[in-house]
Amino acid sequence: MNISALLQFLVSGINLGCIYAAIGLGLFVVYSVTRVLNLSQGEFAMLGGMLTVTFLKMGIPLLPTLFIAVMITALVGACLYQFIIYPSRNSSGSTLVFLTAGFAFVVEGVALLIWGWHSRGMSNFLNSPNIHIGDVTIFGQTPWIVVSTLIMVIGLFMFYGRTIQGKALRACADQPLGAKMVGISTERMSLYAFILAAALGAISGAIITPLTMTGYGVGLPLTVKGMLAAFLGGLNRAEGVIAGGLVLGLAEAFSAGLMPSGYYEVIAVGALIIVFLIRPRGLVTTASEV
Asked: In DSSP terms, which residues pair with 214 in a beta bridge?
C-alpha cells in the first residue's frame, strides 16, 4: 500500500466525517435541549437536498435556492415540534422517539409522492473542479463540505455564546429547572431547537447532494450515520459530535480501502462498541461525566 493510497483514504475519511458530523449536529441541538432523539433528522437533510435540486433546475441562483430550501425545511421542523412533540411533551422519552420516527416515514412518503423514485443530483457548487495533488484526488465539492461544516460548528458556538436566544437554549440544556425559574420558556426554546436542527439538516443535505446524490429514501441512512457519530463522540457536546463524525468517517474510509468490500460497516460499528466499552459517554465528556 503506497503513500498516495493512504492519503486518498485520509481525504475520503475527512469528507465522510464532515458529512456525518453535519448530520449529528442537528441531533445534538435537539437532544441537548429536549432530551429527544430525533430520528427524522436525516429527513431534513433529504428535504434540503431535494429542494435545492428542484429550485436550481427552475433557474433560481444558488444562494437564493439555499435560503429557500433552508426556510422550507425549518418550517417542517417547526411543524414536527408544534404538532407532534409539543402535544405529547408529557409522554415518555421512548414514545417521543417513536413519534419522530413516524414523522420521518410521513416525510419520506410525501417526498416519494412529490419527487418519485428516482435519485436526483446536481453539479458541484459553482462547478468547482476536482483537485489533483499527485495521485490524490480531492472532489470539487469536498472543500464546500468541509468549510460548510466548520462554519456550522463555529456558528453554533457563537450562537450559543453570544446571543440571547443561544444562551437561553444553553440554559435549558444545562439547567432546565433553573431556566424556568428565571422566566425562560422551555417550550419556546424547544421549538427553536427543532427549527435550528432542521435548518442545519437542510444545509447538510444541500452540500452533500453533488457528491452523494439524493432521493426520497436517503433520510434514514443519514440519520443512522449521524447517530453513530453523535454517540461515538458524545451526544451532549458539539465538539464530541465533530470528533465522532471524523473518527467514524476515517474508520469507514480506511477499512473500505484496506479490507474486502462490505467490511467497512462492521468496522464502523466495532469502533463504536470499543469506544462505548472504554468511554461509555463518548469520546468527549466533561469532568463530571467521566
From this structure: 120
162-172 confidence digits (pLDDT tens):
899 889 988 88
Q: Cα-atom radius of gyration of the chain, to the nearest Å?
A: 19
Q: CA 49, 55, 61: angle at the middle one, nearest 5?
A: 105
CA distance 83 to 112: 22
C-alpha cell at 210: 453533488
CA distance 32 to 239: 13
For residue 120, what are the CA distances in angstroms to 54, 134, 208, 222?
9, 31, 12, 16
Burial 78-107 (b: 16+ CB within 10 A, else e): eebbeebbeeeeeeeeeebeebbbebbeeb
Q: Is 38 helix (H, G, I), strand (E, B) or coil?
A: coil
Rounded to whole angstroms, how far apart are CA atoms 166 and 179?
13
Strand-pairing partners, residue 138, are 131
d(CA 183, CA 22): 32
pTM, rounded to two decimals = 0.90
- pLDDT at site 29: 92
Instruction: For residue 179, give the 3-state DSSP assignment.
Output: helix
**Is residue 57 classed exposed, middle or buried when 0-12, 13-18 and 19+ CB atoms within 10 A define those classes?**
exposed
Give all domains of the chain, ordered by start, each with its CATH number: 3-278 (1.10.3470)
84: which DSSP letter? I
